[in-house]
Amino acid sequence: MAAIDRRLQVWAWLVRRQGSVAAKSEAAVMAMQSRQVPSNAVTNFIFGAVARGTEVTNQVIPGPDGDLPVRVYRPVTLAPKPRPLVLNVHGGGFVFGHLRLCDWLCSNVALRVGAVVVSVDYRLAPSHRFPAAVEDSYAALVWAAGHAAGLGAGGPVGVMGESAGGNLSAVL
């Protein structure tokens, strides 16, 4: 039997430590959502850090219910042809997750594919009921496609995500 990666073991311990979300009140879930994930050696070990050779910028774009944070990842090296554009939708069951948790994945896609990756921080339940996450993700996709040239992209457009973000990616 293969050994389980140490990062996954640490993540599983943290999740078990917090207890089941299903047993928590909406107020408790919202309190958990308000916690900031620090950027330090431990979180970089668990979630991964931004890949070297990647430029990262934070922006705010118009969303269906106000400002919508996005993070843009680009390879530092210049591309001889238009870069593809990829929208990333983070996971977290539509209740948890945020831009920081996608740094490793998005920066590696930007670097290895030579793409411009736009990661959207959609509104989370229970404060924002369905279809808020879908609306935010769609608004980010429309915005990114409309601003592709300004972002340094001009090739094909794709959508990616994991967990809940993967489900949203399938419908976008």
Record keyword descriptors for this entry.
single chain, 172 residues, five-stranded mixed β-sheet, 7 helices, globular
Brief overview:
Helix content is 40%, strand content 24%. It has helices at residues 6-18, 26-34, 41-47, 103-114, 132-146, 148-151, 164-171; strands at 54-63, 66-75, 83-89, 116-120, 153-161.
Word description of this protein:
The chain has seven helices and five strands; from the N terminus they run H-H-H-E-E-E-H-E-H-H-E-H. It is globular. The protein has helices at residues 6-18, 26-34, 41-47, 103-114, 132-146, 148-151, 164-171; strands spanning 54-63, 66-75, 83-89, 116-120, 153-161.
Percentage of residues in helical conformation: 25-40%
Strand line-up in the sheet with most strands: 1-2-4-3-5
Query: What structural class results from the helix and strand content?
Result: alpha/beta
Separation of the first and last Cα atoms: 38 Å
The SSE string, one letter per element, is HHHEEEHEHHEH
Q: Which stretches are low in confidence, meaning pLDDT under 50 for 5 or more residues running?
A: none
Rg, please? 17 Å
Give the total of beta strands. 5
What overall geometry do the principal axes of the alpha carbons give?
A: globular
What is the residue-mean pLDDT, rounded to a whole number?
89
Write the layout of secondary structure elements.
Layout: H1 6-18, H2 26-34, H3 41-47, E1 54-63, E2 66-75, E3 83-89, H4 103-114, E4 116-120, H5 132-146, H6 148-151, E5 153-161, H7 164-171
Parallel strand pairs: 3-4, 3-5
Antiparallel strand pairs: 1-2, 2-4
